[in-house]
Amino acid sequence: QLSGGEKCQESQQSPRFNYYGAEPAALDLSDDELPHVIEIYDFPSDFRTEDLLRVFCSYQKKGFDIKWVDDTHALGIFSSPITARDALSTKHLMVKTRPLSQGTRASKAKARAYADYLQPAKERPETSAALARRLVIGALGVRSNQTPAQRDAERRKLQEARERKRLENKQREDAWEGRD
């Protein structure tokens, strides 16, 4: 049994940090991190992807893609920082643009979350229908209606593409190895 004569002393310390008022730190996306991405904003909420693609139709062939943030904000992904800067300098009637570093918090968060998928858009490599034609002809057992000259031209084109790719890989390897 405890004696009741002693008085308990309570000590209270004031908290060093107030976690209840904490806000997430602002995402700092410098222009160096994703210079080929811009924020497209202040357009009507009933705009669809096709509408935005129509606004930036002059950049379609150079490589352009859109990722949505919300109803009135989207990210424009260009093939190079130069093309993105060019798009920023042009004025559009229905949309406004700004660099991602000056964008909203939601746009920066979306860009940070999908940074791996926001790489510059690349042109699709040249393709050939030779393999598909050969497979279909083999499966159906019919003769090809392609002339020998066309076949030879197609083979030469594929051989040149292989040689060009091999040369590019060799140059890249030489650059990394420091060879001339």
Automatic annotation (TrEMBL):
Region Disordered, as annotated, extends over: 143-180
Cite a single GO MF annotation.
nucleic acid binding
Residue ranges with Basic and acidic residues bias = 151-180
- Gene3D superfamilies, A to Z: 3.30.70.330
Which SUPFAM superfamilies is this protein grouped with?
RNA-binding domain, RBD
Superkingdom classification of source: Eukaryota
Task: Report the protein name in the record.
Answer: R3H and coiled-coil domain-containing protein 1-like
